[in-house]
Amino acid sequence: MHGRMADPELRRDMRTKLGRQVRAKTDQLATKLAAYRFKGPLAQAIREFKLQRVHFQVLATLLQCHLRSDTASMEGRNVLAAVTYDSFEMLSSMDLLREDSPLRASGLVLMEDDEEAVDDILEARFRISEDALFAFRDEVEGLVVEDQGKVKRAGYANNRDYLLDLRILHNLFKHRSERIFQQDRWDRVHSGSGQHSGSSLSRRIEAYWRKIARRLQDSPEASSFSALRFFREQNLNDSEAIIVVHLLFKELYEGNAYADAVDLLRLVSSSEDDLIRNRQLIGEGSKLMRLEILQIESMLEGRELTGEVYLSNWVVNYLFGASPGDKDINRDEQLDWHFYLKNLEDTRSFFKDLETN
Question: How many domains are there within the chain?
Fold first, then answer.
């Protein structure tokens, strides 16, 4: 229907009629959305950003566009035309689509990232975000039972249970990174902070950190979890911990212990500005390198971001429950052991030396 309205040959009376039909359907859907008692992530966004009926009108318009149109995005002028009655009201409603608006700040509505920056809200194209689509789908299918803050969580049974929860949290970091730092968009000619495109996932990450903290509080044996003990003893912050978790499970699930240094920085960054600040996480003077938690093989000397990173053996063993006193045998010790075995005459000499030492 929006496509027919965009037809320049459409008669004015037909355009007006179609406009009324679109607005009626949109108003009906917006009314249903505004009256619905959301229980999951959408409920949190509604409370945090104080969404009003007009915001649901915009969401309804973009949702219909996504479900019924060949293209998932609409020009700003068409979005506003669907929720206003005249040109004056349209101009006064442009704030609905600005970057700091509740819909954009919450990550529910995204502006298409074209090659050139579009400053005019009316010409820019907007679409409903994937997070919003998934949230609507889960609500409709009944997959969300109640507000996450009201869910009573059981404590962790053991270290493995705790690590698996960290892996789920880590996957949220991965999804955010893939959304913000698209590989083919680094050479765009305008600045793109990316913070709004990942804002919804950032909120989910923060909520998941809180959930993990609550579960740890309900875990009587938490102090015995080797992974938790490792993070506390090394005094790692959240970003450093996620880097360690990523490398740990990459090796476990893929059989590959290496990750590009720059990929690790993107993993824990919520925007391009954040990416620049996070360079300090991986480098010669960083905590992860200073404590020998990470090892790096740089392609260029002194250029850590060109290298591949992997966990030290002792870290992997520690996280999976080995004794913290179990250290790797260094090269000199391996060589001494080799010469000792080579010169060993018989087992009697071995056991005699063992008793002596």
Answer: 3
Instruction: Assess whether 209 and 313 both reside in one domain.
Output: yes
Name the domain boundary from 85, 105, 140. Answer: 140
Beta pairing, strands 259-260 & 294-297: unpaired
- Angle at 161 (CA atoms; ends 159, 167), nearest 5 degrees: 105
pTM of the model: 0.57
| Assigned domain for 355 exists | yes
Supply 157's token pair: 């049974």
Q: Tens-of-pLDDT digits for all 357 residues of the chain?
A: 444 545 556 666 666 666 666 666 666 656 666 666 666 667 777 777 888 888 888 888 898 888 887 788 889 988 888 888 778 888 888 999 988 888 888 878 888 865 344 568 888 889 988 778 877 777 666 555 444 444 455 789 999 999 999 999 999 899 888 878 765 455 554 444 444 456 667 877 888 898 899 999 999 999 999 999 999 999 999 999 999 999 999 988 888 889 988 899 999 998 888 888 888 888 778 899 999 999 888 776 666 677 889 999 999 999 987 655 545 555 555 556 556 555 666 555 654 554 455
My answer on whether 161 and 114 are in the same domain is no
* Same-domain check for residues 318 and 337: no
For residues 249 and 290, is the Cβ–Cβ distance under 8 A?
Answer: no
The answer on 216 and 101 residing in a single domain is no
What is 167-222 written as a DSSP string? HHHHHHHHHHHHHHS-GGGTT-SS----TTTTHHHHHHHHHHHHHHHHHHHT-TTG
Tell whether 146 is covered by a domain.
Answer: no
Structural domain containing residue 293: 152-326
Smallest CA-to-CA distance from 234 within 164, 302, 318 is with 318
